[in-house]
Design brief:
The protein has eleven helices and twelve strands. By secondary structure, the protein is of the alpha/beta class. It is globular. The relative contact order is 0.13.
Length: 319
Amino acid sequence: MPKIVILDGYTANPGDLSWNELEALGQVTVYDRTKPGETVARAADADIVLTNKVVLSSEVIAQLPRLKYIGVLATGYNVVDMAAARERNITVTNVPAYSTESVTQMVFAHLLNVTNRIDHYAAENRNGRWADNPDFCYWDYPHMELAGKTFGIVGLGHIGLRVAQVALALGMSVRAVTSKAADALPPNIIKASMEELLEQSDVLSLHCPLTESTRHLINADTLRRMKPTAILINTGRGPLVDDEAVAEALAGNRLAAFCADVLTEEPPKADHPLLKQPKAFFTPHIAWATTEARCRLIQVAIHNVKAFLDGKPVNVVRG
């Protein structure tokens, strides 16, 4: 039986799900976490390696002579040196589109938190503020009605399209930067340039891949072109945003709010400039991590391994 090693299984399955179906395919060893210096020793005899965030660099791959297959427990596969994998004829697969609904949900959880401040009022009321209030209601922040506002999207892949559908259902006008032709877009999604999106968006949500051209797509210059009342949301990749530039824009009241599920460095250092900004709202890279999405992730990852062992690999990434 093939030897299968999972280098960082804890985030996908902290114990509430099962690897049983994978164990039927080979001899499985699951590590909750693997430090960089431990990767080679743990994967040395593996035919198949599954990884989420543990990096398989060219140097690591060169020291794994038995390795035939790398399964990425995510959609993005930047943790794998694809050139080294190709040179060794190692098959690399990913798990596409498993978290579309969950990430979309997180986008609007962040947005509605900013526009309605549910968590703030719940906390205040637990401390007795409503009970002691002289009026039947109170509010500390102006509330924004989303209907009629412009929702800008960068990237119309699976998640970007689903986000657009929800924004339209909320009565928002949707504009998008996309490689798709304007006449190929679903009804009511308007193709726009990046400049138009920056200038027109009341809400700007990032859903594009991280490439050299999109790294720091949101920076000091692009932030200056945005409305000071705009809300910026990043559930894509941390480095799409220049963290310091966003912190400065928030501090200078040139951006109304920043909502993020991802940061450039994860976990961030305690002195990260955005963590001190009261108008910055963070979740710890969990948009993908609903129980339902993790079930799909594991099911597809196991199906990928089985297909490879059957000689008919699926979800193969070319890099």
